[in-house]
Write a structure and sequence with these properties.
Elements: H1 7-14, E1 20-23, H2 32-40, E2 46-49, H3 55-62, E3 66-71, H4 83-91, E4 98-101, H5 106-115, E5 120-123, E6 144-147, E7 154-159, E8 165-173, E9 179-180, H6 188-194, E10 197-205, H7 208-213, E11 218-220, E12 225-230, H8 248-257, H9 261-273, H10 278-289, H11 291-297
Parallel strand pairs: 1-2, 1-8, 2-3, 3-4, 8-10, 10-12
Antiparallel strand pairs: 5-7, 6-7, 8-9, 9-11
Helix pairs in contact: 1-2, 3-4, 5-6, 10-11
């Protein structure tokens, strides 16, 4: 059965206040269309996670969607620290979120454990760091310290994560949810497969035959997926390899707007609440910045060397 639907339908049917979400987008393919819809539907009290969090998480925190954040760090990249993130932690605006911090290796390993059905996973990179001294809402379950049964060295055990919903943006998927991506992967594959169900946003919907011709690009099977949304430029202002580049000018616009509560509110009113869907968002972008600015983001198309699975 086809799982294709609109983003409004996908979020309304599958995301509830209080859910634990994995949101893909490690460096690229951020599912901004889904994030905007979550904000528009005023879903709150979420626990969110991903390594390498950026302006997408900052926006959700500023919009009041987030209660808890299982984190490695959050930044606006070349534009510095997340302004909404800082206001939340320093001033409790719009609310003070609870945060549990891990390293950029530990968190993907926790998602990997969740995807593989393991209860925990051993790591060593947090050993000796102050991350062991600070515990928040996970309490004593943040980690356990043991002596390795093999060499006796101190070893940290961290728990598996199994989010209620995984939300990812990929280059292509078929109508049944078999999702394919290329470029930087980060923790996207593990986070999606650790989740109990997955919403797939994609640049294009392709046939099952197309997916089958290059199966190694498939990162999540259709059996995990509850919704497929064809959403061109769904990652803007982030980038999707092979389709469009990061919009650094728009990133600067967000950074400037989020410097103040008033500026951030105006940004949300214009770019999120004031938009019916992603199509309206892109049309507004073109009207405001011009078609040439929009066209300039597009990637030059080029084929990779074909792979043969013949035998």
């Amino acid at each position: 059965m086809s799982k294709v639907m609109s983003m409004k339908e996908a979020i309304a049917a599958n995301v509830r206040s209080g859910d634990f979400l994995f949101i893909g987008g490690y460096v690229c393919r951020t599912p901004f269309s889904a994030i905007h819809e979550i904000i528009r539907q005023r879903i709150t009290d979420l626990t969110i996670t991903r390594s390498n969090a950026a302006d997408d998480f900052d926006m959700m925190i500023g919009a009041g969607c987030v209660k808890r954040f299982i984190a490695t760090f959050l930044s606006l990249g070349v534009y510095g620290l997340g302004r909404c993130f800082r206001r939340s932690l320093e001033k409790g605006i719009p609310r003070k979120i609870e945060i549990e911090e891990y390293t950029n290796l530990a968190l993907p390993m926790m998602l990997m454990a969740g995807a593989m059905g393991m209860p925990f996973v051993p790591i060593r990179d947090m050993a000796g760091s102050d991350l062991l001294k600070v515990k928040s809402f996970m309490g004593e379950d943040k980690y356990k310290l043991i002596d390795s049964p093999f060499d006796g060295r101190p070893t940290i055990l961290v728990p598996a994560l199994n989010p209620d919903v995984g939300i990812i943006h990929v280059q292509q998927a078929d109508e049944f949810g078999n999702a394919q991506m290329w470029g930087i992967g980060g923790d996207c594959m593990y986070g999606a497969n650790a989740s109990k169900k997955v919403i797939v946003s994609c640049e294009r919907i392709v046939s099952r035959e197309t997916v089958g011709k290059d199966p190694s690009r498939t990162i999540v099977p259709g059996s995990k997926v509850v919704a497929v949304v064809e959403e061109p430029y769904g990652s803007h202002p982030g980038y999707t390899p092979g389709f469009y580049d990061a919009d650094f000018s728009f990133g600067y616009l967000y950074q400037q707007a989020s410097n103040t509560e008033e500026g951030f509110k105006a940004f949300l009113d214009e770019w999120v609440y004031g938009m019916e869907d992603r199509t309206a968002y892109i049309q507004h972008y073109i009207q405001k910045f011009g078609y040439e600015a929009y066209k300039k983001l597009g990637a030059e198309f080029d084929y990779g060397f074909p792979v043969s699975y013949a035998y």
